[in-house]
Every structure is written in C-alpha cells, then in structure tokens.
Amino acid sequence: MKPTDTHNERIAKMTFSSVYPHYVTKVEKKGRTKDELNEVITWLTGFDEKKIQQLIEEKVTFESFFSQAKLHPNAHLITGMICGYRIEEIDNPLTRQTRYLDKLVDELAKGRKMEKILRS
C-alpha cells in the first residue's frame, strides 16, 4: 500500500505534541518508561529531552519537527510494516521519517531490547 498525497499532507500538518502523549501511553502500558521513549526519539532525531519538551510546547508540526532533526545515520535500517505501510517503500521522506518514529515506538512497546531498537 502506498501513502497518498492527502495522507502525506495530513502527516506533515499533524503536531508532534498531539501524538507524543499517545506514544507515552502506549509504552507505559507495556511497562516501558517515558525516559526510554525519549531515548528512542533522541537516537532518531538528535534532540535532547529539553529540545523534545520545547518542540511539544511550541506545538510544531511533524514537517517542522523533522526539518529540525538530524536523523541518525542508521535510520535507514528501520524496516518493516507499520500502519499498513512497508517503511522502505514509502517515497515521501517526511512520511517515511514519521513512520520510522512510529516503528521505534512500536518496538519499544513490544519489549524489544534497546540495543536492537537503536540499531547498534
């Protein structure tokens, strides 16, 4: 399944602050912590906890969020299915980056070891 232009636009305009609490809930329900979630976000984006909090407070869109990020050189190793899409087949860079983040949060919630999640 390929994301449509409308789907890509919707993701670009979605705010990080609207999704972050759902990430926290998802990982905490499965026994993981907010600190672990932030570690995963930091690995992917290069943002420290202070910057993550600032971006939440500023209600930045995913477009702005990822334009400010310095993606980890191993981010391309994040593959597989997420939300019905095969990550490596997503053409739109922003949608692919957002799905990278979704996939990492999923792996964290599923109890995967941090070394595996962080592709180290």
Secondary structure elements and pairings:
Layout (H helix, E strand, L loop, with lengths): L4 H9 L2 H14 L4 H12 L3 H9 L4 H7 L12 E2 L2 E2 L6 H17 L4 H4 L3
Antiparallel strand pairs: 1-2
Brief sketch in words of this structure:
With 120 residues, the chain is mainly alpha-helical. It has helices at 5-13, 16-29, 34-45, 49-57, 62-68, 93-109, 114-117; strands spanning 81-82, 85-86. The radius of gyration is 13 Å and the shape is globular.
Architecture overview:
The chain has 120 residues and is mainly α. It has a single domain (5-114), classed as Orthogonal Bundle (Helicase, Ruva Protein, domain 3). It is 60% helix and 3% strand. It is built from 7 helices and 2 strands. The chain has helices spanning 5-13, 16-29, 34-45, 49-57, 62-68, 93-109, 114-117; strands at 81-82, 85-86. The protein has a two-stranded antiparallel ribbon with strand order 1-2. A hairpin with a 2-residue loop joins strand 1 (81-82) and strand 2 (85-86). Helix 3 packs antiparallel against helix 6 (93-109). The longest helix has 17 residues, at 93-109. The model has no long low-confidence stretch (mean pLDDT 95). This is DUF2200 domain-containing protein. It comes from Algoriphagus aestuariicola. InterPro entries: SP1917_dom_sf, UCP033199.
Question: Which terms would index this structure?
Answer:
120 residues, mainly alpha, Helicase, Ruva Protein, domain 3, DUF2200 domain-containing protein, UCP033199, SP1917_dom_sf
